Every structure is written in structure tokens, then in C-alpha cells.
Amino acid sequence: QVQLVESGGGVVQAGGSLRLSCAASGIIFSVNPMGWYRQAPGKQRELVAKITSGGSTNYADSVKGRFTISRDNAKNTVYLQMNSLKPEDTAVYYCKADLWASWGQGTQVTVSS
Q1: How many helices and strands in the chain, by DSSP H and E?
Q2: What is the pLDDT of residue 1?
Q3: So what's the pLDDT on residue 67?
Q4: Which of the 8 DSSP states describes residue 32?
Q5: Contact 12, 93 (CB under 8 A)
Q6: Exposed (0-12), middle (13-18) or buried (19+): which is 110, by Cβ within 10 Å?
Q7: Burial letters 31-59, b for 16+ CB under 10 A, else e
Q8: DSSP 100
Q9: CA-CA distance, 63 to 81, in Å (whole number)?
Q10: C-alpha 36: how far from its chain's center?
């Protein structure tokens, strides 16, 4: 059974930084492309960043240059480093193993202006 546990969210002022972590179990982590997604109140869930098993990355235009996705296969963990945060980044952030349908519980990020 796939289990994804996100952590690292919180409240931060605009311009600040946070680092999200997602620990995965129940999958062969190293072969799975992983993604970070977010959902703001009243909006659809959207892709933030993806990383392939080989380490290639891509980002939503809204976060390019500010966010960095990375993975540590030895720890079965994917990270999202978020810098220069803006109020519009406020959302619940979720990670996903993109070969599986399961979602974690998410972690709340709130950016105050």
C-alpha cells in the first residue's frame, strides 16, 4: 500500500522560505517519478513541480526560479525548497508518486503579506 507523508508546511511572511518533505513507503521509490501539487481554497489542484527517476525536473511557470524539487532515493523522500514565497503560494501542498493514484494528507503553507 502506497503511503505518502508530507511535512514542513507552516506560516511564513512574503519573501520567506520553507522546505517541504514527503516520505514515501510501499513503492520502489527510486523508479517513480514524483510530483508536488497544490490546492488553494476554491481552486483546482495544480502541478507545482515534477522530478523523474533520473532527476530531470520541470516546474509550473508561476514557481520557476523560486522553487526547487529534489529527491533522496536512499531516504525515499522528495523535497520542495520554496524561496521568495508570495501570498498567492498559499495552499495545501501534496506530493504524489505519479505512477500511483494515491495522495498524501497534504501540508498547509500560508504566506502572509
Answers
A1: 0, 10
A2: 86
A3: 98
A4: S
A5: no
A6: middle
A7: ebbbbbbbeeeeeeeeebbbbeeeeeeeb
A8: S
A9: 11
A10: 3
How far apart CA 38 and CA 90 sit, in angstroms, is: 9
Residue type, 3: Q
Beta-strand relationship, 10-13 and 67-72:
unpaired
What is the separation of C-alpha 52 from the centre of its chain, rounded to a whole number of angstroms?
Answer: 14
Those residues of the chain that have pLDDT short of 50 are: none
Q: What is the pLDDT of residues 32-49, one digit of tens each?
A: 999 999 999 999 999 999
Distance CA 44, CA 36 (A): 14
Q: Give the residue among 8, 91, 113, 85 at the shortest CA–CA distance from 45.
A: 91
